[in-house]
Write a structure and sequence with these properties.
The protein has one domain (7-247): Alpha-Beta Complex (Creatine Amidinohydrolase), CATH 3.90.230. The model has no long low-confidence stretch (mean pLDDT 98). The radius of gyration is 17 Å and the shape is globular. The relative contact order is 0.19. The chain has helices at 7-30, 37-50, 119-137, 145-158, and strands at residues 54-55, 68-71, 74-76, 91-96, 98-100, 103-104, 107-112, 162-163, 169-171, 178-182, 199-202, 205-207, 213-215, 222-224, 230-232, 235-239, 245-247. The chain has 4 helices and 17 strands. The structure holds 2-amino-4-trifluoromethylsulfanyl-butyric acid and cobalt (II) ion (CO) (2 copies). One cobalt (II) ion is lined by residues 106, 170, 201, 203, 234.
Length: 252
């Protein structure tokens, strides 16, 4: 069941979206070789509380931390740890989801660590960002959900990359994950029709080679099966009653 939102409810989701953006800006200035992924967790946790929000990941279905930190071959849902120290040349996705005034704002970026990130990692990260932009550009009142995945898949595969199938975008609002599912692969004109009042994420995970993933024994950390890199960007998007498409996870 898709929970459609009124313009008033979409407006009420903005503070959560703004805080998600603010957190990712803080993380941008904080990331450097030598910090641990737990340091990022503390930063995100404390700033979320300071701004009157709640970090949705903490204790969500047993997830133990307030943010997901996914380094190099980790596709998503990496668990912050004191023993995981960032080094020059790494790439890391940081995925934040604050709850403010009862609503969730979900956004992530992949950051380059230090100034000597190899060309292949830079290009993959750039592609994942472009895939998010292309996915958002495909959103139109009345289009089909497959149009989003088609735009992303066509571009990523044209560069020889793989689009992750095991994890998808999702409806979002008072709950973290709602209908509909938003695949980042697919066919034009297929799937449910997008309509006014829908609020959902687009969050393409792009793998350097194979799209296949496996989940580690911690039951969260998803990694590429071939050990190659993965990158991801995410925004929360709304279709207002006017048909206007609004990115909620941008600055105030
Ligand atoms: N933020 C992730 C998403 O984009 C979900 C993380 S679930 C968690 O949907 F439990 F790992 F936090
Ligand atoms: Co999400
Ligand atoms: Co997310």
């Amino acid at each position: 069941m898709i929970v459609l939102k009124t313009d008033k409810e979409i407006d009420a989701m903005r503070p959560a979206g703004h805080l998600a953006f603010e957190l990712l800006e803080l993380v941008k200035d904080f990331i450097k070789p030598g910090i641990s992924t737990e340091d990022i967790n503390v930063l995100v946790h404390e700033h979320t509380l300071k701004q009157g929000g709640t970090p949705a990941p903490l204790n969500y279905r047993g997830f133990p931390k307030s943010v997901c930190t996914s380094v190099n071959q980790v596709v998503c849902h990496g668990i912050p740890s004191k023993s995981q120290v960032l080094k020059e040349g790494d790439i890391i996705n940081v995925d934040v989801t604050p709850i403010v005034a009862g609503y969730h704002g979900d956004s992530s970026r992949t950051y380059l660590v230090g100034k000597k990130v190899p060309e292949n990692a830079r290009k993959l990260t750039e592609c994942a960002k472009t895939c998010l932009d292309l996915g958002i550009a495909a959103v139109k009142d009345g289009c089909r959900i497959g149009d989003i995945g088609h735009a992303i898949q066509t571009y990523a595969e044209s560069l020889g990359y793989g689009v992750v199938r095991d994890f998808v975008g999702h409806g979002i609002g008072k709950t973290f994950h709602e209908d509909p599912q938003v695949p980042h692969y697919g066919k034009q004109g297929r799937g449910i029709r997008l309509s006014k009042g829908m609020v959902f994420t687009i969050e393409p995970m792009i793998n350097e080679k194979s799209w296949k993933c496996k989940v580690l024994k911690d039951e969260w950390t998803a990694v590429t099966v071939d050990g190659k890199l993965s990158a991801q960007f995410e925004h929360t998007i709304a279709i207002r009653s006017s048909g206007e498409v609004e990115i909620l996870t941008l600055p105030q």
